[in-house]
Specification:
3-stranded antiparallel β-sheet, Arc Repressor Mutant, subunit A, alpha+beta, Creatine Amidinohydrolase, 2 domains, WH_DNA-bd_sf, PA2G4/ARX1, globular, Creatinase/aminopeptidase-like, 8 helices, Peptidase M24 domain-containing protein
Length: 386
Protein backbone atom coordinates (compact mmCIF):
# COMPACT_ATOMS: atom_id res chain seq x y z
CA UNK A 1 0.00 0.00 0.00
CA UNK A 2 1.43 3.35 -1.02
CA UNK A 3 1.48 6.63 0.87
CA UNK A 4 -1.22 7.81 -1.54
CA UNK A 5 -3.48 4.99 -0.36
CA UNK A 6 -2.98 5.72 3.34
CA UNK A 7 -3.70 9.46 3.23
CA UNK A 8 -6.71 10.83 5.12
CA UNK A 9 -9.84 9.90 3.19
CA UNK A 10 -11.81 12.76 1.67
CA UNK A 11 -15.60 12.60 1.46
CA UNK A 12 -18.12 14.07 -0.97
CA UNK A 13 -17.64 17.57 0.45
CA UNK A 14 -14.44 17.62 -1.65
CA UNK A 15 -15.19 18.60 -5.25
CA UNK A 16 -12.36 16.44 -6.64
CA UNK A 17 -13.94 13.35 -5.06
CA UNK A 18 -17.33 14.08 -6.65
CA UNK A 19 -15.56 14.68 -9.96
CA UNK A 20 -13.97 11.21 -9.85
CA UNK A 21 -17.26 9.50 -8.95
CA UNK A 22 -18.98 11.28 -11.83
CA UNK A 23 -16.17 10.46 -14.25
CA UNK A 24 -16.40 6.79 -13.25
CA UNK A 25 -20.16 6.89 -13.80
CA UNK A 26 -19.78 8.59 -17.17
CA UNK A 27 -17.47 5.83 -18.39
CA UNK A 28 -19.57 3.06 -16.82
CA UNK A 29 -22.68 4.44 -18.52
CA UNK A 30 -20.89 4.73 -21.85
CA UNK A 31 -19.64 1.14 -21.67
CA UNK A 32 -23.11 -0.12 -20.68
CA UNK A 33 -24.70 1.62 -23.66
CA UNK A 34 -22.05 0.18 -26.00
CA UNK A 35 -22.66 -3.32 -24.62
CA UNK A 36 -26.43 -2.94 -25.05
CA UNK A 37 -25.76 -2.28 -28.74
CA UNK A 38 -23.06 -4.96 -29.01
CA UNK A 39 -24.82 -7.93 -27.40
CA UNK A 40 -26.68 -10.22 -29.81
CA UNK A 41 -28.15 -13.75 -29.94
CA UNK A 42 -25.50 -16.28 -30.93
CA UNK A 43 -22.66 -14.62 -29.01
CA UNK A 44 -20.56 -16.43 -26.44
CA UNK A 45 -20.92 -14.78 -23.02
CA UNK A 46 -17.15 -14.69 -22.50
CA UNK A 47 -16.74 -12.56 -25.62
CA UNK A 48 -19.22 -9.98 -24.29
CA UNK A 49 -17.49 -9.92 -20.88
CA UNK A 50 -14.07 -9.50 -22.49
CA UNK A 51 -15.37 -6.71 -24.72
CA UNK A 52 -16.85 -4.86 -21.73
CA UNK A 53 -13.62 -5.07 -19.75
CA UNK A 54 -11.61 -3.90 -22.76
CA UNK A 55 -13.87 -0.86 -23.17
CA UNK A 56 -13.41 0.04 -19.49
CA UNK A 57 -9.63 -0.24 -19.66
CA UNK A 58 -9.38 1.72 -22.92
CA UNK A 59 -11.73 4.42 -21.67
CA UNK A 60 -10.06 4.81 -18.28
CA UNK A 61 -6.63 5.14 -19.89
CA UNK A 62 -7.79 8.38 -21.54
CA UNK A 63 -8.83 10.12 -18.31
CA UNK A 64 -6.94 11.29 -15.22
CA UNK A 65 -3.63 10.78 -16.97
CA UNK A 66 -1.64 11.36 -13.80
CA UNK A 67 -3.22 8.19 -12.36
CA UNK A 68 -1.05 5.49 -13.89
CA UNK A 69 -2.50 2.41 -12.19
CA UNK A 70 -5.30 3.14 -9.70
CA UNK A 71 -8.13 3.34 -12.24
CA UNK A 72 -10.09 1.05 -14.50
CA UNK A 73 -12.26 -1.93 -13.59
CA UNK A 74 -14.03 -1.74 -10.24
CA UNK A 75 -16.25 -4.70 -11.05
CA UNK A 76 -15.49 -6.98 -14.01
CA UNK A 77 -18.16 -7.27 -16.68
CA UNK A 78 -20.58 -10.05 -15.75
CA UNK A 79 -23.30 -11.42 -18.03
CA UNK A 80 -25.87 -13.48 -16.12
CA UNK A 81 -28.73 -15.10 -18.02
CA UNK A 82 -32.28 -16.05 -17.02
CA UNK A 83 -32.21 -17.80 -13.61
CA UNK A 84 -28.55 -16.93 -12.96
CA UNK A 85 -28.49 -14.29 -10.21
CA UNK A 86 -25.06 -12.86 -10.99
CA UNK A 87 -21.24 -13.00 -10.92
CA UNK A 88 -20.98 -14.94 -14.20
CA UNK A 89 -17.76 -13.84 -15.92
CA UNK A 90 -16.21 -16.96 -17.44
CA UNK A 91 -12.78 -17.80 -18.82
CA UNK A 92 -12.24 -18.49 -22.55
CA UNK A 93 -11.62 -22.19 -21.82
CA UNK A 94 -14.77 -22.61 -19.70
CA UNK A 95 -17.75 -24.37 -21.34
CA UNK A 96 -19.32 -21.94 -23.79
CA UNK A 97 -22.59 -20.22 -22.87
CA UNK A 98 -24.25 -19.03 -26.06
CA UNK A 99 -26.87 -16.30 -25.85
CA UNK A 100 -30.28 -17.02 -27.38
CA UNK A 101 -33.15 -14.84 -28.51
CA UNK A 102 -35.56 -14.35 -25.61
CA UNK A 103 -32.88 -14.74 -22.92
CA UNK A 104 -33.26 -12.34 -20.01
CA UNK A 105 -29.74 -10.93 -19.79
CA UNK A 106 -28.25 -8.96 -16.89
CA UNK A 107 -25.18 -6.83 -17.63
CA UNK A 108 -23.22 -5.81 -14.52
CA UNK A 109 -20.02 -3.73 -14.47
CA UNK A 110 -18.09 -1.11 -12.52
CA UNK A 111 -15.48 1.61 -13.08
CA UNK A 112 -13.25 3.56 -10.73
CA UNK A 113 -10.85 6.46 -10.79
CA UNK A 114 -8.46 6.69 -7.84
CA UNK A 115 -10.62 4.11 -6.04
CA UNK A 116 -13.89 6.09 -6.36
CA UNK A 117 -16.39 3.62 -7.72
CA UNK A 118 -19.46 3.69 -9.93
CA UNK A 119 -21.28 0.43 -10.57
CA UNK A 120 -24.28 -0.19 -12.77
CA UNK A 121 -26.37 -3.11 -13.95
CA UNK A 122 -29.19 -3.36 -16.46
CA UNK A 123 -31.52 -6.08 -17.74
CA UNK A 124 -32.76 -6.70 -21.29
CA UNK A 125 -34.77 -9.38 -23.08
CA UNK A 126 -32.43 -10.32 -25.91
CA UNK A 127 -33.86 -9.85 -29.39
CA UNK A 128 -37.22 -8.58 -28.13
CA UNK A 129 -38.99 -6.05 -30.35
CA UNK A 130 -38.62 -2.79 -28.37
CA UNK A 131 -42.03 -1.60 -29.60
CA UNK A 132 -43.84 -4.67 -28.23
CA UNK A 133 -44.46 -4.67 -24.46
CA UNK A 134 -42.94 -7.45 -22.38
CA UNK A 135 -45.68 -9.13 -20.36
CA UNK A 136 -46.06 -11.81 -17.70
CA UNK A 137 -43.85 -12.48 -14.69
CA UNK A 138 -40.73 -10.92 -16.20
CA UNK A 139 -42.67 -7.68 -16.74
CA UNK A 140 -43.86 -7.86 -13.13
CA UNK A 141 -40.26 -8.22 -11.91
CA UNK A 142 -39.04 -5.30 -14.04
CA UNK A 143 -41.91 -3.09 -12.80
CA UNK A 144 -41.12 -3.99 -9.18
CA UNK A 145 -37.42 -3.22 -9.68
CA UNK A 146 -38.24 0.13 -11.30
CA UNK A 147 -40.50 1.31 -8.47
CA UNK A 148 -38.01 0.06 -5.88
CA UNK A 149 -35.35 2.22 -7.51
CA UNK A 150 -37.67 5.24 -7.55
CA UNK A 151 -38.44 4.79 -3.85
CA UNK A 152 -34.84 4.15 -2.82
CA UNK A 153 -33.56 7.35 -4.40
CA UNK A 154 -36.20 9.29 -2.45
CA UNK A 155 -35.49 7.52 0.84
CA UNK A 156 -31.74 8.14 0.59
CA UNK A 157 -32.00 11.33 2.63
CA UNK A 158 -30.71 12.34 6.05
CA UNK A 159 -32.62 10.77 8.92
CA UNK A 160 -34.09 7.87 6.96
CA UNK A 161 -32.81 4.35 7.72
CA UNK A 162 -31.72 1.29 5.81
CA UNK A 163 -34.55 -0.72 7.36
CA UNK A 164 -37.12 1.64 5.85
CA UNK A 165 -35.78 0.76 2.42
CA UNK A 166 -35.85 -2.97 3.17
CA UNK A 167 -39.50 -2.66 4.20
CA UNK A 168 -40.57 -0.85 1.04
CA UNK A 169 -38.75 -3.42 -1.09
CA UNK A 170 -40.88 -6.13 0.52
CA UNK A 171 -44.07 -4.15 -0.02
CA UNK A 172 -43.42 -3.49 -3.70
CA UNK A 173 -42.46 -7.11 -4.38
CA UNK A 174 -45.64 -8.29 -2.67
CA UNK A 175 -47.64 -5.90 -4.84
CA UNK A 176 -46.17 -7.32 -8.07
CA UNK A 177 -46.16 -10.94 -6.81
CA UNK A 178 -42.40 -11.37 -7.22
CA UNK A 179 -39.55 -11.99 -4.76
CA UNK A 180 -36.43 -10.04 -3.79
CA UNK A 181 -33.44 -12.35 -4.05
CA UNK A 182 -31.98 -13.37 -0.68
CA UNK A 183 -28.45 -12.35 0.24
CA UNK A 184 -28.36 -9.21 -1.90
CA UNK A 185 -26.85 -6.18 -0.18
CA UNK A 186 -26.53 -2.56 -1.25
CA UNK A 187 -23.33 -1.09 0.19
CA UNK A 188 -21.98 2.25 1.20
CA UNK A 189 -18.84 2.72 -0.91
CA UNK A 190 -15.79 4.89 -0.40
CA UNK A 191 -12.27 5.10 -1.77
CA UNK A 192 -11.05 1.58 -2.64
CA UNK A 193 -13.93 0.03 -0.65
CA UNK A 194 -16.70 -1.58 -2.67
CA UNK A 195 -18.37 -3.34 0.26
CA UNK A 196 -18.58 -0.88 3.15
CA UNK A 197 -20.04 -1.93 6.51
CA UNK A 198 -23.20 0.18 6.18
CA UNK A 199 -25.54 -1.96 4.08
CA UNK A 200 -29.15 -2.20 2.95
CA UNK A 201 -30.50 -5.73 3.13
CA UNK A 202 -32.81 -6.52 0.25
CA UNK A 203 -34.61 -9.42 1.91
CA UNK A 204 -34.52 -10.29 5.62
CA UNK A 205 -33.58 -13.88 6.41
CA UNK A 206 -33.13 -15.92 9.57
CA UNK A 207 -29.40 -16.31 8.92
CA UNK A 208 -28.76 -12.76 7.72
CA UNK A 209 -29.42 -9.55 9.63
CA UNK A 210 -27.80 -6.13 9.42
CA UNK A 211 -27.37 -3.27 11.85
CA UNK A 212 -29.78 -0.37 11.42
CA UNK A 213 -28.25 3.00 10.59
CA UNK A 214 -29.40 6.45 9.49
CA UNK A 215 -28.32 7.92 6.18
CA UNK A 216 -26.01 10.92 6.28
CA UNK A 217 -24.88 13.48 3.76
CA UNK A 218 -21.59 13.15 1.89
CA UNK A 219 -21.92 9.38 1.57
CA UNK A 220 -21.99 7.24 -1.58
CA UNK A 221 -24.02 4.06 -2.09
CA UNK A 222 -24.30 1.38 -4.75
CA UNK A 223 -27.92 0.22 -4.88
CA UNK A 224 -28.35 -3.35 -6.12
CA UNK A 225 -31.91 -4.43 -6.97
CA UNK A 226 -32.21 -8.13 -7.84
CA UNK A 227 -35.75 -9.49 -8.28
CA UNK A 228 -36.91 -13.04 -9.09
CA UNK A 229 -40.09 -14.39 -10.58
CA UNK A 230 -39.55 -17.40 -8.28
CA UNK A 231 -38.91 -17.68 -4.54
CA UNK A 232 -35.75 -15.57 -4.53
CA UNK A 233 -33.59 -18.37 -3.09
CA UNK A 234 -30.31 -19.06 -4.84
CA UNK A 235 -27.60 -21.70 -4.68
CA UNK A 236 -24.29 -22.58 -6.29
CA UNK A 237 -24.44 -25.19 -9.05
CA UNK A 238 -21.86 -26.25 -11.62
CA UNK A 239 -20.37 -22.91 -12.68
CA UNK A 240 -16.86 -22.22 -11.42
CA UNK A 241 -16.18 -18.97 -9.56
CA UNK A 242 -14.15 -16.54 -11.65
CA UNK A 243 -14.53 -13.23 -9.73
CA UNK A 244 -12.50 -12.61 -6.58
CA UNK A 245 -11.19 -9.83 -4.35
CA UNK A 246 -8.12 -9.72 -2.15
CA UNK A 247 -8.86 -10.33 1.53
CA UNK A 248 -6.75 -7.49 2.88
CA UNK A 249 -6.97 -8.67 6.48
CA UNK A 250 -5.49 -12.10 5.74
CA UNK A 251 -1.89 -12.92 4.82
CA UNK A 252 -0.01 -16.12 4.10
CA UNK A 253 3.41 -16.91 2.67
CA UNK A 254 2.48 -18.80 -0.50
CA UNK A 255 4.56 -21.92 -1.14
CA UNK A 256 4.35 -22.15 -4.91
CA UNK A 257 6.42 -19.77 -7.02
CA UNK A 258 3.55 -19.74 -9.53
CA UNK A 259 1.15 -18.56 -6.84
CA UNK A 260 3.51 -15.85 -5.65
CA UNK A 261 3.84 -14.54 -9.21
CA UNK A 262 0.06 -14.41 -9.67
CA UNK A 263 -0.46 -12.80 -6.27
CA UNK A 264 2.03 -10.10 -7.28
CA UNK A 265 0.03 -9.62 -10.47
CA UNK A 266 -3.19 -9.20 -8.47
CA UNK A 267 -1.51 -6.73 -6.12
CA UNK A 268 -0.33 -4.67 -9.06
CA UNK A 269 -3.53 -4.73 -11.14
CA UNK A 270 -6.37 -4.85 -8.57
CA UNK A 271 -5.11 -4.55 -4.99
CA UNK A 272 -8.41 -3.47 -3.42
CA UNK A 273 -11.29 -4.16 -5.80
CA UNK A 274 -12.81 -7.28 -7.39
CA UNK A 275 -11.15 -8.80 -10.44
CA UNK A 276 -11.77 -11.56 -12.94
CA UNK A 277 -9.36 -14.42 -13.45
CA UNK A 278 -9.24 -13.42 -17.12
CA UNK A 279 -6.81 -10.62 -16.23
CA UNK A 280 -4.26 -13.09 -14.84
CA UNK A 281 -1.58 -15.23 -16.51
CA UNK A 282 -3.61 -17.95 -18.20
CA UNK A 283 -0.97 -20.64 -17.59
CA UNK A 284 -0.68 -19.97 -13.86
CA UNK A 285 -4.01 -18.55 -12.66
CA UNK A 286 -6.00 -21.68 -11.81
CA UNK A 287 -3.30 -23.30 -9.69
CA UNK A 288 -2.48 -20.00 -7.99
CA UNK A 289 -6.12 -19.15 -7.18
CA UNK A 290 -6.56 -22.63 -5.71
CA UNK A 291 -3.66 -22.13 -3.28
CA UNK A 292 -4.82 -18.61 -2.34
CA UNK A 293 -8.37 -19.80 -1.66
CA UNK A 294 -7.04 -22.69 0.43
CA UNK A 295 -5.43 -20.14 2.74
CA UNK A 296 -8.34 -17.62 2.70
CA UNK A 297 -6.35 -14.93 0.90
CA UNK A 298 -9.25 -14.11 -1.42
CA UNK A 299 -12.95 -13.40 -1.10
CA UNK A 300 -14.94 -15.24 -3.77
CA UNK A 301 -18.05 -14.11 -5.64
CA UNK A 302 -19.70 -17.43 -6.55
CA UNK A 303 -22.09 -17.84 -9.47
CA UNK A 304 -25.58 -18.28 -8.01
CA UNK A 305 -28.77 -19.65 -9.54
CA UNK A 306 -32.47 -19.61 -8.70
CA UNK A 307 -34.39 -22.80 -9.48
CA UNK A 308 -35.04 -23.68 -13.13
CA UNK A 309 -38.08 -21.95 -14.58
CA UNK A 310 -37.51 -18.78 -12.59
CA UNK A 311 -36.13 -15.59 -14.08
CA UNK A 312 -34.09 -12.90 -12.33
CA UNK A 313 -33.78 -9.23 -13.29
CA UNK A 314 -31.19 -6.81 -11.94
CA UNK A 315 -30.80 -3.03 -11.90
CA UNK A 316 -27.89 -1.36 -10.10
CA UNK A 317 -26.90 2.27 -9.74
CA UNK A 318 -24.59 4.54 -7.77
CA UNK A 319 -25.97 7.35 -5.60
CA UNK A 320 -24.19 10.34 -4.06
CA UNK A 321 -25.83 11.96 -1.02
CA UNK A 322 -24.54 15.50 -1.34
CA UNK A 323 -25.21 18.37 1.06
CA UNK A 324 -28.39 19.64 -0.61
CA UNK A 325 -29.47 16.90 -2.98
CA UNK A 326 -29.07 13.26 -3.91
CA UNK A 327 -27.63 12.36 -7.32
CA UNK A 328 -28.28 9.09 -9.12
CA UNK A 329 -25.34 8.56 -11.44
CA UNK A 330 -26.57 5.65 -13.59
CA UNK A 331 -29.89 5.27 -15.40
CA UNK A 332 -30.87 3.61 -18.66
CA UNK A 333 -34.04 3.27 -20.70
CA UNK A 334 -36.16 0.42 -19.38
CA UNK A 335 -37.70 -2.17 -21.69
CA UNK A 336 -41.34 -1.49 -22.55
CA UNK A 337 -43.40 -3.59 -20.11
CA UNK A 338 -47.02 -4.13 -19.15
CA UNK A 339 -48.01 -5.63 -15.80
CA UNK A 340 -51.43 -6.62 -14.54
CA UNK A 341 -50.42 -5.24 -11.12
CA UNK A 342 -50.13 -1.62 -10.02
CA UNK A 343 -48.89 0.50 -7.10
CA UNK A 344 -51.89 2.83 -7.45
CA UNK A 345 -53.62 1.30 -4.44
CA UNK A 346 -50.54 1.06 -2.23
CA UNK A 347 -50.48 4.15 0.02
CA UNK A 348 -47.00 3.47 1.47
CA UNK A 349 -45.45 3.52 -1.99
CA UNK A 350 -47.52 6.47 -3.17
CA UNK A 351 -46.42 8.50 -0.14
CA UNK A 352 -42.74 7.95 -0.96
CA UNK A 353 -43.17 8.69 -4.66
CA UNK A 354 -44.95 11.94 -3.73
CA UNK A 355 -41.95 13.23 -1.77
CA UNK A 356 -40.52 16.43 -3.18
CA UNK A 357 -37.40 15.88 -5.19
CA UNK A 358 -35.56 18.76 -3.47
CA UNK A 359 -33.94 19.10 -0.08
CA UNK A 360 -33.03 22.74 -0.69
CA UNK A 361 -35.10 24.89 -2.96
CA UNK A 362 -33.06 26.36 -5.79
CA UNK A 363 -35.67 27.60 -8.22
CA UNK A 364 -39.43 28.19 -8.30
CA UNK A 365 -39.58 27.28 -11.96
CA UNK A 366 -39.10 23.55 -11.52
CA UNK A 367 -42.32 21.55 -11.40
CA UNK A 368 -42.86 18.87 -8.82
CA UNK A 369 -44.01 15.42 -9.81
CA UNK A 370 -42.88 11.95 -10.68
CA UNK A 371 -39.25 11.41 -11.54
CA UNK A 372 -38.22 11.13 -15.13
CA UNK A 373 -36.89 7.54 -15.29
CA UNK A 374 -34.08 8.74 -17.57
CA UNK A 375 -32.99 11.66 -15.36
CA UNK A 376 -29.43 11.60 -14.09
CA UNK A 377 -30.03 13.75 -11.02
CA UNK A 378 -32.54 13.29 -8.21
CA UNK A 379 -33.07 15.99 -5.65
CA UNK A 380 -35.19 16.05 -2.48
CA UNK A 381 -36.37 18.71 -0.02
CA UNK A 382 -36.02 18.32 3.74
CA UNK A 383 -38.94 20.53 4.74
CA UNK A 384 -41.70 18.31 3.37
CA UNK A 385 -40.46 14.76 3.85
CA UNK A 386 -43.66 13.49 5.41
Amino acid sequence: MTMEDTEIEKDLSASEVVEKYKAAAELANSVMLELLEFIQPGQNVVDVCTHGDRLIMEGSAKKFLKLKTNKGIAWPTCISVNNCAGHFSPLPDDPAVILKEGDVVKIDLGVHFDGYISQCAHTIVLGHNPETPITGKVADAICAAYFIGECVQRLLRPGKTNNEITQIIQKICETFHVSPVEGVLSHEVSRNIIDGNNVILQKPAVDQTVEEFKFEINKAYVIDIVISTGEGKTREVDKATRVFKRALDRNYQLKLQTSRAVFSEITQKSPFLPFTMRMLDEKKRKMAITEMMKHDMLDAYPVLFEKEGSTIVQFKFTVLMLANFTTRLNNFNLPLVTSEFSIDGVPEVQAILALSMKRKKKSNKKKKGKANPNAMEVEGEEEDEE
